[in-house]
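re: that complex we talked abt at group meeting.

here r the seqs, copy pasted straight from the sheet so there may be weird spacing, ignore it
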Amino acid sequence: TTRTPEFLGLDRNIGGLVPESDSVSDVIVGVLDTGGWPESKSYDDMGLGPVPSEWKGECELGKSFTAVNCNKKLIGARFFSSGYEATLGPIDESKESKSARDDDGHGTHTSSTAAGSLVDGASLFGYAEGSARGMATSARIAVYKVCWLGGCFSSDLVAAMDKAVADGVNVLSMSLGGGMSEYYRDSVAIGAFTAMEKGILVSCSAGNAGPSSYSLSNVAPWITTVGAGTLDRDFPAYVSLGNGKNFSGVSLYSGKPLTNSMLPFIYAANASNSTNGNLCMTGTLLPEKVAGKIVLCDRGLSARVQKGQVVRDAGGYGMVLANTAANGEELVADAHLLPASTVGQKSGVAIKEYLLTDSNPTATIAFEGTKVGISPSPVVAAFSSRGPNSITPEVLKPDLIAPGVNILAGWSGSVGPTGLPGDTRRVGFNIISGTSMSCPHVSGLAALIKAAHREWSPAAIKSALMTTAYSSYKSGSKLQDIATGGLATPFDYGAGHVDPVSALDPGLVYDITADDYLEFLCALNYTAAQITSVAKRKYTCDASKQYSVTYLNYPSFAAAFETATTTSGSGSSGSSKVVKYTRTLTNVGAAGTYKVSLSSESQSVKISVEPDSLSFTQQNEKKLYTVTFTASSMPSGTNSFARLEWSDGKHIVGSPIAFSW
Amino acid sequence: SASEKKTYIVHMAKSEMPESFEEHTHWYDSSLKSVSDSAEMLYTYTNVVHGFSTRLTPEEAESLEGLPGILSVLPEVVYELH
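got the structure back, here u go
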């Protein structure tokens, strides 16, 4: 990727915390996706030493893919299609390669984001130009192709995870999801449990179903769930109207520009006989009304780039794509096939008013290239899936956010940047958006931490990423949500935006063992069979032992007062409800004394921490503290947020707190 | 009928394998054959899942679920890229 290393502070390497490439090159990132395009410059292995001796992976022979396509960067490439073919029939090899070769681009993008090599002069048609690199530039990549034209089938996914664990990956990156189900029925959660138990950090995308609440996927507590935020980079494309007004939008269009003169402008709804003509769906625009004009289309139902193709095929000269309430002011840029600009909802409303009231509306679009330094940034992407966690509300998800909007990374040579069949352009890098893009950022950063701290468990690495994430801008104001234009909450960003340099030296971590997670499953009242499905070993919950989901040593807090019951862990007192959490902090830094501080936006919850100071004299020393939330009665559905921080003056170990009634 | 068959992931309790089997894969195969003569394994899983995936009719899946050592028989889920 370009820009994200700078945006994340990796280029500055303050304090020399970023590990040397030699140690990073021992870390292997497994990416379950659409495979890889082996000719991508992001897989160049120059400067890399021999493949780690423990590696058991392979480059499997398949269509247009042999062992020679692998090298010291791309060290593994497998494909899994038996489940897919069993349901949908044999793979049509004229449309997709029955091999690890990436015919889609998504897998090359995600794997190069996580661990791609340094490529100077990368860009998409000159947009986002710079030196592209993965987060863990020297780490090795193993691609496991599990996603095909018809989707990613769980039987293939489990087979790939099974193999990746046996091959010896250190980090598993999965930018995919499939609904919400209990952990014992969720293949990704089940597979991730064993991976975690073997020391592999599993990073998954949170989903693109935002800004709706309860829209998260991959919420098992042993998974790192990653939402998406913006960078400080934009690709402005201004829409100028005949009435002299200008509106700011974005575009990655590269081709013959529109003439400077104003062109006739029409709303798609008025150029169609279809009831949803405003959406510019295939076959709905009337060429006689569209030809030679710029067309305004509303977002929804079909792919953004497909709408541009529909306008072009109907003879349109350009397109203005207007966000709806679902997207708000979020501006996702696309490499449209015709001159086009995406504008926010407010601009869309204003432009439509002009279109509907002016007797002779005209417009033109001016493309301004790449702009950096956009403020504020990051802001939470509107599409990024949001909490609360629908499976276990007591575990706050997503865990954190990372860059996922307009991300440049490697691309497949067999498909154009829009992914449309009619797009004959071929590019080495593409700019796309999604939590698919934020997930591999965290996967690569986890690989960096793994390289710096080989002995750390996946939970410790996740804790480091979460407790050092930031939820305020340097000005002190809280992170914003582009969906609302207002302040975001931990249900949107979890612990906050990833800050990798701080994560390399977190001071303290909240560690969790596999057995801790099993006790968590006991607290969920899972049956022995359900626990065995997840754990792959016999584990009996102790009938005499008290279990609570609040006992899980998670780096964040989600107190659900409506479920608070009278136990030793939580209880009721008159009209107020009390929830207690005991947490264990492990010192991974120097000796020091940490003091607690609390901030809360609500007067309805009293928070107390005991003790309020923790002294550590040596590494790996563990200390316990108890935090008590005493909440007064609030209407059901009320949410409120707070933050708990431990600091020794050098490190800040922060935890978000979400209260819900 | 074959057209009614769907893919299932079958989770097995490896610790409950009868002593008469030397290899867990033989046990998996025997369990599968006891509910379907024609069904074949798509994958045998050994690390992140103990079990296998196969194509079964809903009736066969239900029968399999009732056998000793079977933890669950979960229908295939199609995931999508984010």
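couple things i noticed - The longest strand of chain B covers residues 6-12. Chain B touches chain A through 27 residues (CB under 8 Å).
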